[in-house]
Design a protein that fits this description.
The chain is built from 20 helices and no strands. The chain has helices at 3-25, 27-58, 61-88, 92-97, 101-104, 110-143, 150-177, 181-187, 189-208, 211-235, 238-243, 251-263, 269-283, 285-309, 315-322, 339-359, 363-385, 390-423, 432-464, 466-473.
Length: 475
């Protein structure tokens, strides 16, 4: 490691140690964390024992076997939520107490201050979480309940660690953007509620028993953690932290920033298309190419997955499934799939992709895009396995409206990825709110100018042209 980088990291540790020393002096933080660390594992042990008794009585050992690692995950999660108050007060708390000025006027770089606070805010939650897990495991040993297997233990501990970093990264980011501890604590619901939903999803994976999916969840949470920490470092400005005194919801300012970014320098609709929409497409071109490549790969993956797995399904199942699809792929009822139904479905899908991608820095949006394109490849492969004319369905049933629908789906997914790239890119003299509004306005520009017209054309073709082509040439 170069000497200069080593010295920079030593300064980060000094900032972290300063923060930890202040935390250990406050008994109002230490005592509640200690009590929760001791009491909650005993409650979890009681629940595990009750589950084992239930399993032995009714002969359902699988439920108790999967419940034990789930409770292990819960025991590791709750101390982190209580310790989150430390990270929420990292910047705004010191600002209210009047102790942050010496740190901000020091000759430290912004990233060193931010990373020091981030490391210090993660230590206490992780320690309490690990202690709670240790107490829970000791209780299992004393009660004679089998411990989870080593692989499940590694998954749970890794998930606990990355979730702690994710929650603390979000709390530190909130602390830099808040003007009071009260506001930061209110904003913490945007961290705790999504993480609680994530825990529920992980619980489903635990009871499902699919280890590969759980490791993918670990990787996904780790990616989100890195991106969230990157956003915080990119937009941390000590001058703005000292300058903000009160939070004001200025809807007029928000509307002005959005409209200015949406309209650009255009004076007419034609000029808006020639200048602003074309410029937006040019700026998002790298994201568009990346999303296109991902879509092609996922489509090929969906095709290969069906080809590899479906032929092994029993013939009875194949015959039953074949009875659902008439030979020659009959045309669906136009009453069920009308123009407005198809258009509304596509627009809802884009809105979901955008919202999920916005709150996950593009990762969940990209995941939904991958699932959509993989379904297309899987459908073609399914028809091929069942002995139907897959190429005819692809040419006459997918391609006519797909030449409009798939580019619109690519553009919408690329826009979400573009917003994520903008958020993790440092922008000097620009606040996080202003950068976010401008990025969303550029996505809205493409949505109104390109994506919606493409979806309208796709819905029209799928409603009135594709059925005719399938009826004429798909048999």
């Amino acid at each position: 490691m170069p000497k200069r980088r080593q010295e920079a990291l030593q300064i980060v540790w000094l900032v972290a140690w300063r923060e930890l020393r202040d935390q250990l002096r406050d008994w109002r933080i230490i005592i509640p964390m200690f009590i929760l660390t001791v009491i909650l594992p005993f409650l979890a042990n009681a629940g595990a024992q009750a589950a084992m008794n239930f399993a032995s009585r009714y002969g359902t050992p699988l439920i108790a076997e999967r419940l034990v690692p789930f409770l292990l995950l819960v025991v590791g999660f709750f101390p982190i939520t209580v310790s989150l108050v430390i990270a929420l007060e990292a910047f705004v708390g010191e600002k209210e107490r009047g102790t942050i000025e010496p740190l901000l006027v020091s000759p430290l770089e912004d990233w060193q201050i931010y990373m020091g606070k981030l490391l210090a805010g993660t230590v206490a939650p992780l320690i309490t979480s690990y202690l709670g897990i240790a107490v829970y495991l000791l209780g299992l040993v004393f009660q004679g309940i089998p411990l989870p297997d080593p692989n499940r233990m590694a998954q749970t501990l890794t998930l606990t660690t990355v979730q702690a970093f994710l929650m603390v990264s979000g709390a530190i980011l909130i602390s830099t953007q808040s003007t009071s501890v009260r506001a930061a604590n209110l904003m913490s619901s945007f961290i705790i509620i999504p993480m609680a939903l994530l825990i529920q999803g992980e619980a489903v994976m635990l009871f499902w028993g699919n280890d590969q999916v759980l490791w993918l969840a670990v990787a996904g949470v780790a990616v989100l953690t890195v991106l969230l920490a990157r956003v915080g470092i990119a937009h941390f400005q000590r001058e703005a932290l000292l300058g903000r005194e009160i939070d004001v919801l200025n809807l007029r300012w928000v509307g002005q920033v959005f409209w200015r970014a949406f309209k650009g320098q255009a004076k007419s609709v034609g000029q808006w298309y020639r200048l602003e929409v074309r410029a937006a497409l040019r700026r998002q071109a790298p994201a568009i190419w990346v999303v296109t490549a991902i879509g092609l790969l996922s489509m090929a993956g969906g095709y290969a997955l069906i080809q590899a797995n479906l032929p092994s399904v029993s013939q009875d199942v194949m015959d039953e499934f074949s009875s659902i699809l008439p030979v020659g792929v009959d045309v669906p009822s136009l009453d069920q799939f009308s123009f407005f139904y198809i258009l509304g479905h596509n627009l809802r899908a884009v809105v979901v992709i955008f919202l999920l991608g916005l709150f996950s820095f593009g990762t969940l949006g990209a995941l939904l895009f991958v699932l959509n394109t993989a379904v297309v490849g899987g459908l073609v492969s399914l028809l091929d396995v069942m002995g139907l004319s897959a190429w005819k369905v692809a040419v006459f049933g997918i391609l006519p409206h797909g030449i409009f629908e798939l580019p619109a789906l690519v553009l919408s997914s690329a826009s979400v990825l573009y917003v994520a790239i903008i958020l993790v890119t440092p922008r000097s003299q620009r606040s996080l709110g202003e950068v976010s509004i401008e990025a969303i306005a550029e996505c809205a520009r493409l949505f109104v100018g390109v994506i919606c017209p493409l979806f309208i054309l796709a819905a029209a073709v799928e409603t009135w042209v594709t059925p005719v082509l399938l009826s004429t040439f798909g048999g």
